[in-house]
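Discussion board: Methods & Data

I've been asked by a reviewer to show the raw model output for two of the constructs in my manuscript, not just the figures. I'm not sure how much to include, so I'm pasting the format here to get opinions. Each protein appears as its amino acid sequence followed by a line of discrete structure tokens. Is this the kind of thing reviewers expect to see in a supplement, or should I convert it first? Here is construct A:
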Amino acid sequence: MKIHEVTEEQLSELRAKHGERRVIKLSTTTPDGAIEIAVLKPSRKEYERFRKQLGDDNKRDGALENMLRAHVLSPERAKFDELLDEFPALPEEFGKPLLAAIGLSGSAEVGKS
């Protein structure tokens, strides 16, 4: 069962509107079913705002959720908020692949040459 689906047609429309490389589809599976979302990759400035929130003790806990909510294209924000009410760990689940998509994959190594 799919709780929320992003079709290839929706994804194509979003990429045509926002840019082919800026829109990504993220998916996860819960015991209740699959959830797919389409997000806009954060810009450099938006990522800097996220990092500042991480450094603020009062904002750290919500930093990932704030970044994700600001960049969700599908579902619409009200529906995404309903998903967050039902599945409050979604920011952590989707946050890691979103951060990997903008370069924070954790796979960087020191080269010896």
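Construct B, same format:
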Amino acid sequence: MIGTGVPTMPPTDDTVRLIWEGAIGADRMCRYYGYLSERLTRLGEMVAIGTVSFSGGAVLAVLNHLPDWISLAALAIAAVAGVALVIGRFQEKAARSVDLYRQIARLSADWEDLWSGVYERDEAELREAWRRLSRQQQAILERAPAEVPLWEGLALRCQREADEYWTQRHASA
């Protein structure tokens, strides 16, 4: 920049597009991991409550001399819910989702700042910032597929929401 506030080399359309896509992608991932953590927490709580309820129901069925099939059904359901609770590791995955959400939220704010000044910055500066943010985002998300589930319906919802938000609020920048 030469003291005029006008970039010496204005951004190319390609650079503007890359930053736009990076900002929307970070917003989408932020939304996804936030929603995912909420869903996993609720799911874990429901399975835990179900396990306790059906275990208690099985005990009551035995104590009240209810038909055998009721106590067997309650025990079977409690066993399945208990296994799901252990295998599902819902709270662990929810905690990892919260961690990913927090990291991506900070990065998403950086993408938004970059987008807000996209036409006031120099091409080289923008490309360097795009590379840095892209590398950071890749490092954050590198192990995510192995650690937390990908729910396609939720991912599509987050994509729609991010697209709508960015189109309505930022497209004119």
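Answer (T.O., handling editor elsewhere):
This is acceptable in a supplement if you add a one-line summary per construct. For B, something like: The chain has a mean pLDDT of 84.
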